[in-house]
Amino acid sequence: MIEELKLLGLTDGEIKVYLALLKLGPATNSPIARNTGLQSSTVYYCLNSLIEKGFVSYIKKGDRKHFSPLNPEDILDVLSRKESELQQQKQRIKKAIPQLKQHQNVTQI
Fold first, then answer.
1. Angle, CA of 17, 19 and 23, to the nearest 5°
2. Distances in Å between the alpha carbon of 69 and those of 10, 16, 21, 25, 79?
3. 17, 36, 38, 106: least buried by Cβ within 10 Å?
4. What pTM was computed for the model?
């Protein structure tokens, strides 16, 4: 399971945080830090990265953020979004290739 999460681009710390959230349910930073054994600052860094990657969301209650994990069944949706983004990048690169070729030095030795 950990290797599969690594294939998705998650770091060891992110995996620990995601698994802790699956176990704990919605939680603030402190319980996650206790559960993972990671420093609070590391947990915040991992949470922010997991939010960017779509594996964690949060709601604010007062001045505190309560983080929730992505349902494991929804991981396939994350992959579909990544796949779509890669296709868009591929199309942009295809369009840029002629311009890049104009800069290429074609002298042969």
1. 115
2. 14, 12, 6, 7, 16
3. 106
4. 0.79
